[in-house]
From TrEMBL:
Belongs to the KAE1 / TsaD family. TsaB subfamily. CDD domains: ASKHA_NBD_TsaB. It comes from Vibrio zhanjiangensis. The lineage of its organism: Bacteria, Pseudomonadati, Pseudomonadota, Gammaproteobacteria, Vibrionales. Coiled coil: none annotated. This is tRNA threonylcarbamoyladenosine biosynthesis protein TsaB. Residues 30-226 form the Gcp-like domain.
Amino acid sequence: MSAKILALDTATENCSVALLVNDHVYVRREVAPRDHTKKILPMVDEVLKEAGLALNELDALAFGRGPGSFTGVRIGIGIAQGLAFGAELPMIGVSTLEAMAKGSYRSMGATHVACAIDARMSEVYWGRFMRQEDGAWCTIDEESVISPTTLAEHSQTDKFSWVKAGTGWDAYTDALGDIKYDVIQGCVIYPDAEDIALLASLEFEKGNTVAVEEASPVYLRDKVAWKKLPGRE
């Protein structure tokens, strides 16, 4: 019997919750950039009720660990830790970039995915992933925060066609258009809890869980994007 895993993600504009039970996924999702704190817990209640389960009957709680919005990532991990602590569940952090790669495979069968989330300040959160036979994803380009121009300058041609995923492609069309390897249009804009749950199930099978107090975000950048005010440096 597969693990029962609750997953949530608020790292980007998309707010989503998924509950994986016996290979069936109960999902709630909504693009709600400013309402994550209002939406996420009702979504959790809804999927649990739909599945007929209580939180303490689950095996693990997964969360989108970032990268993404600083505020969104903090909200997600804080709520996830609170739920996991109360139900005494182990936790599994999943990369939001890898989740978009998984979403691209789920949606269109893509096995080579180039993920770019708009990180503001003329940068993207970047990662390239290749699907393995066991369903896991191999990291081709390590996750980083980088300017699209620099990324394009250091890119090299290869034999694959890479499916685009994430908000960064539309935000920096011109600069990312100079990338040297072949890229094709994708359909995934945001990471989603459904894919986080599916990836977390693979990690759970390997025993890769952490205690609540050890769950941590991945920001990739230690400064928050902000606009300078008149008279401020």
